[in-house]
UniProtKB/TrEMBL annotation:
<dbReference type="Pfam" id="PF04166">
    <property type="entry name" value="PdxA"/>
</dbReference>
<dbReference type="GO" id="GO:0046872">
    <property type="term" value="F:metal ion binding"/>
</dbReference>
<feature type="binding site">
    <location>
        <position position="180"/>
    </location>
    <ligand>
        <name>a divalent metal cation</name>
    </ligand>
</feature>
<feature type="binding site">
    <location>
        <position position="280"/>
    </location>
    <ligand>
        <name>a divalent metal cation</name>
    </ligand>
</feature>
<feature type="binding site">
    <location>
        <position position="297"/>
    </location>
    <ligand>
        <name>substrate</name>
    </ligand>
</feature>
<feature type="binding site">
    <location>
        <position position="288"/>
    </location>
    <ligand>
        <name>substrate</name>
    </ligand>
</feature>
<feature type="binding site">
    <location>
        <position position="151"/>
    </location>
    <ligand>
        <name>substrate</name>
    </ligand>
</feature>
<keyword id="KW-0520">NAD</keyword>
<dbReference type="GO" id="GO:0042823">
    <property type="term" value="P:pyridoxal phosphate biosynthetic process"/>
</dbReference>
<dbReference type="GO" id="GO:0051287">
    <property type="term" value="F:NAD binding"/>
</dbReference>
<feature type="binding site">
    <location>
        <position position="306"/>
    </location>
    <ligand>
        <name>substrate</name>
    </ligand>
</feature>
<comment type="similarity">
    <text>Belongs to the PdxA family.</text>
</comment>
<keyword id="KW-0521">NADP</keyword>
<dbReference type="InterPro" id="IPR037510">
    <property type="entry name" value="PdxA"/>
</dbReference>
<dbReference type="GO" id="GO:0005737">
    <property type="term" value="C:cytoplasm"/>
</dbReference>
<comment type="function">
    <text>Catalyzes the NAD(P)-dependent oxidation of 4-(phosphooxy)-L-threonine (HTP) into 2-amino-3-oxo-4-(phosphooxy)butyric acid which spontaneously decarboxylates to form 3-amino-2-oxopropyl phosphate (AHAP).</text>
</comment>
<dbReference type="InterPro" id="IPR005255">
    <property type="entry name" value="PdxA_fam"/>
</dbReference>
Length: 359
């Protein structure tokens, strides 16, 4: 292994991806096991499973899925070999019983402590990115966590104030001005500042993480028909249009606000590098309709790389072997791509600054 002279961090031939198993009673461990047995995918990275070896074994046994030989560790080893699957066990030997389809505080705690550990591995440079299998918002709330989901939890753990949930598929990237909040709370959180910040985060991410030079961003309205000139709501005229004018003054290529229904109806999303939606379901309903089995949930704005499948714990099919690994597979591919792109950008910037210093 060589050393990157600028960052002093080891340059690994294959990225190390920390993968959390999610809620032990949902489909998380199943979709992870299915991905691990996909030889095309496994060529591109070294997995570090974070969670519980016992839970992984139980899912493999019940679902009759292949389980590689496990190397259960407290910390990530220097060398990872394809012969043994590294599992960073966070249970201290006390894994909860797997109860398929059941919402439990123990399941929520294991899921969140796995996320905490994976974040630390990324911050310490022991993993290059993390991919999170689904958690249950009810289970984590039962376990006493105050954040509604991964996005907010990881933002807190990494000290990130500016971030957004961005859903990513081949045809559509869509980021949210507001996230996991009740619908009645949306209008007062759709402020000029929040819209501008979301545009900035998405713009930065499109350049840094997706390699798009001059990204074009479409912004949706909040009200039906984007307010119809103020007849169907005032937020467009009072908040969204002024925010877009300010964004244009700052040099962003932003368009809109578009009425959300026809924007998707005529496929206009294909003309832009990303779309900004005002609230969760405005963005996620079209997204999941277009790409449920291949879509990825990406957290833009973090100092680390985190992706996740676009679906949840699917308790209704847990333990039955029916879960599609498609979205999890896309989440792993995207994490690999973004981690590599960020590293290449860092190396290019370091090379430029050292040649400038030398001249
Ligand atoms: N990344 C994450 O951690 C996410 C977590 N959630 C959480 O998951 C829990 C359950 O959420 P729901 O709204 O019920 O959505 P869900 O995505 O778990 O399930 C919705 C429907 O899709 C099906 N489905 C989901 N994933 C599938 C797969 N891989 N293969 C085949 N069918 C699949 C389920 O069987 C169900 O019929 C909630 O607590 C929610 O907040 C939801 C989305 C993402
Ligand atoms: N709708 C996306 C979702 O619920 C997943 O949220 P997060 O756990 O990734 O924050």
């Amino acid at each position: 292994m060589s050393i990157d002279l600028e960052s002093r961090k080891p340059v690994r031939p294959r990225p190390r991806i920390a993968i959390t198993l999610g809620d032990p009673n949902g489909v998380g461990p199943e979709i992870v096991l299915k991905c691990l047995s996909d030889s095309r995918l496994m060529k591109f990275f070294d997995p570090i499973i974070v969670g519980s070896a016992e839970v992984l074994r139980k899912h493999a046994e019940v679902l009759e899925l292949p389980l590689p030989e496990l190397q259960v560790v407290g910390d990530v080893p220097e060398r990872i070999t394809p012969e043994r699957l590294v599992v960073v066990d966070v249970t201290g030997g006390k894994a909860p019983e797997v109860e398929f389809g059941k919402i439990t505080a123990e399941g929520g705690k294991l899921a969140m402590e796995s996320v905490r550990r994976a974040v630390q591995l990324c911050l310490d440079g022991k993993a290059d990115a993390m991919v999170t299998a689904p958690i249950s918002k009810e289970a984590i709330s039962l376990a006493g966590y105050r954040e509604p989901g991964h996005t907010e939890f990881i933002a807190r753990l990494t000290g990130t104030r500016r971030y957004t949930m961005m859903m990513v598929s081949d045809d559509l990237r869509i980021g949210l001005v507001t996230g996991h909040i009740p619908i009645w709370d949306v209008p007062k959180r759709v402020t000029r500042q929040a819209i501008l910040e979301t545009i900035e985060i998405i713009h930065e991410s499109l350049i840094q993480d997706f390699g798009i030079d001059r990204p074009k961003i479409a912004v949706l309205g909040l009200n039906p028909h984007a307010g119809d000139g103020g007849v169907l709501g005032r937020e467009e005229n009072e908040t969204i249009i002024p925010a877009l004018e300010e964004a244009r003054r700052r040099g962003y290529l932003v368009f809109g606000p578009f009425p959300a229904d026809s924007f998707f109806g005529i496929g206009a999303y294909r003309l832009y590098d990303a779309v900004v939606a005002m609230y969760h379901d405005q963005g996620l309903i079209p997204f999941k309709t277009l790409a449920f089995e291949s879509g990825v949930n990406y957290t833009a704005g973090l100092p680390i790389v985190r992706t996740s499948p676009d679906h949840g714990t699917a308790y209704n099919i847990a333990g039955q072997g029916k879960a599609s690994p498609g979205s999890m597979r896309s989440a792993i591919y995207l994490a690999i791509d973004i981690a590599r792109r960020r590293k290449e950008r860092q190396q290019a910037a370091a090379a430029t600054s050292s040649s400038a210093a030398a001249s």
